[in-house]
TrEMBL record:
Location of the region described as Disordered in the Swiss-Prot/TrEMBL record: 342-361
Higher taxonomy: Eukaryota, Viridiplantae, Streptophyta, Embryophyta, Tracheophyta
GO molecular function: transmembrane transporter activity
Protein name, as recorded: WAT1-related protein
One cellular component (GO) term of this entry: membrane
Sequence similarity: Belongs to the drug/metabolite transporter (DMT) superfamily. Plant drug/metabolite exporter (P-DME) (TC 2.A.7.4) family.
Amino acid sequence: MLKSSRGGFWEELFIVSGNFGAQVMYGVYMVFLNGVFAAGVNPLFLVVFGNLVTAVVVLPFAVVLEKKKWPSKLNATLLSHFLLLSLGGVTLFQALTLVGIKKASPDIASAMPNLAPGLIFLIAACLRFEKFDACCWYSRAKILGTLVCLTGAMAMCFLQSPSESPSLTSNLSALLSMPFTLDKAIYSDWMLGCFYLLIGVVFLSCTTVLQAATMLEFQAPLSLVVVTSVMGSLLTALWQVISEGNISVGPSTLSIARIVGVVLLGGVLVGVCVAFQTWCISKKGPVLVAIFSPIQTVSTVVLSAILLGQMITPGSLAGIVLMFAGLYVVLWAKNNEDLTAVGGNDDPQPHVEDVEKPLLS
C-alpha cells in the first residue's frame, strides 16, 4: 500500500495510473510491431531511428532536471561505460528483442524481461557487487524466484505454438502433439526467436549491473538515456551498414510516411515512458515501478488474441503465471531485505551500493 507523500492522494493516483498506462502502451506497441515486421520493415532500421527519436524526446527533461548534475569533464572510464551500455543495452538488446518478436511472438517478447530481476541478482552476486548469504532467507527467495521465472520462460517457449495457438478449450492430446506436427522450419524459427529474446534479456541484465556502477559517477539517469540512445543508434547504423551494405527500411510494403510514423510513435512512446518511470522511481522507489511490469505481458497476450488470433495455450499460460510468481518472489525478497537494512539489526553491515535498483524500472 502506498504511503502518503507531499503530493498527497492525487500524486499517488497519478503514479499508479501512469505506471499502469505505460505498461499497457508497451503491450500495444509490442503487438503493433508484429504487424510492422510482417510488412517487411527491417528491425535494425527501427532501432537506429527509434533511439534517435527517444533521445530527442528525453533531452529536454534531462536538461531541465539534471543539468546541474552533469560532470565538468568525462574521463576514459566513463566513456567506455557509455560505449558498453550503448552496445549491450541498446544495440544488442533492442535488436535481439525486435528480431525475437519477428520470429517468435509479442507474447514471448513481453514476458521475457520479467526474468531480469533474478538474472541481475545472480550476475551481481557472482561479481560480488551484491551481498549473497546462503543462510539468509531473502537470498534463498531470490534464487528460488529466479528459477521459477526461468521455468516459466521455458514453458512459454516450448508449449506455445509458433503459428496459430489453440484456445484454452483445446483437448490435451491435440495440445501435446501440436509441436511435433508443425513444419520443422517454422518450429526451428520459433525456437530461434525465443533464444534471441532470452539472450537479449541476458545482455540487458549485464548492462544493468554496469549501469549501476556508472551511476555512482554519473548520477543523471535521463541524461544517461540520451547518451546511450544516441550512441546505440550510431552503433546499430554501423552494424547495419557492415552487414547489409546500407541503412535501409527493408523490402517493406508500407509507405515511407507510415514507416516514419511508426518510428516517431515508438520513439515518443519509449521516451515519455522512460521519463515518467524515472520520475516515479525518484518518488516511490524502483520496486513500486517493477510490480507493474507483468501488466505489459497481460496486455500483449489479450491484444494478440483479439487482433492476431494467437490464443494462448494452457501450458504457456502456466508459464506466464510461473514468471509472474517468480518475479514477485524476487521483488518481495528485495523489498524486505531493504526494509531490514533500513530498520537496522543487531549486526549492521557496511553500506553497499544496490546494483539491483536500476533494473527494477
